[in-house]
Amino acid sequence: MAGIAEILKNLLNSLTDVGTIDILINILLATIMSFLIYLVYVKFGTSLSNRKHFGGSFLLVTVCTSLIIALIKSSIALSLGLVGALSIIRFRTAIKEPQELTYIFFCIAMGLGFGANERLITLASGFLVLAILLIVGILRKEKMEEVYNITIKTKKLGVEKIVSIVGEHCSRVDLRRFDQNDGTTSMLMFVEFDSYARLEKCVEVLNAADEKIRVSFVAARSLG
User: Fold this and answer.
1) Highest mean pLDDT among 42-51, 194-203, 208-217
2) Arithmetic mean of pLDDT, 88-112
3) Helix (H, G, I), strand (E, B), or coil: what is residue 187?
4) 30 within 8 A of 118, measured Cβ to Cβ
5) Over the stretch 15-45, which tens digit does the pLDDT of each residue have?
6) Partners of residue 177 on adjacent β-strands
7) Does the pLDDT value for residue 145 go beyond 60?
8) Domains along the chain with CATH numbers
């Protein structure tokens, strides 16, 4: 109990040293910034995973980082205690795509800035990065880039041939599943086309290669 009381006392002293009002203002700014990052990520992100679900963690990452830095930056004892506490935390959810990791780093950077009470430089750099992401996203959206979940079943074509045909007509191919049973090849892929004409051409070439092939396209935009 004495140890817990000492930790609480140190936390209260840190809050007093930093300034409760400043911490609350920084947490509010961190919340607003994390929400803006979330909007940009959901709208312009290219990750094939559920962007809304993943983006929901931005708020906690940004605010918690800001609060932790605000509490420990003036206390060596608390910083050492934090290292010990974090050493027992194990994150088991893997980051599957590089873009997810970059957005998490963006949120952490914003949290560090606000936690250190560097509001001006943090806001300026944050809005600058968001502006760049918006410009790149808008330019990218000028093209039709629709993500599809494609299922293919064939007895004639092999995996290499199918991936080669699909890859020639789409801008992105991500093989997610492959099964082979009784001479039938079944594949599940996420693909991205920049025009409907290329989608139609892809289906046409697949049908020409195997008249009995079964191809199913389902728009996967809902995954974002």
Assistant:
1) 208-217
2) 75
3) strand
4) no
5) 555 567 788 888 899 999 999 999 999 888 7
6) 188
7) no
8) 2-141 (no CATH), 146-223 (3.30.70.260)
Residue owning tokens 């420990």: 72
Amino acid at the residue 94: A
Please list, in sequence order, all residues whose beta carbon lies within 8 angstroms of the beta carbon of residue 79, skipping any fewer than 6 positions away.
72, 73
Q: Find, among 114, 167, 148, the residue nearest to 216 by Cα.
A: 148
Ramachandran category for residue 91: left, alpha or beta (phi over 0 → left; psi -120 to 50 → alpha): beta
> Closest Cα partner for 198 from 155, 131, 146?
146
Q: Quick count: other Cβ atoms within 10 Å of Cβ 189?
A: 21
Q: Which of 58, 40, 38 is nearest to 135 (CA)?
A: 40
Q: Is the pLDDT of residue 5 over 80?
A: no
Q: Residues 55, 44: contact at Cβ < 8 Å?
A: no
- Which residue(s) pair with 185 in the sheet? 154, 180
How does DSSP classify residue 223? G
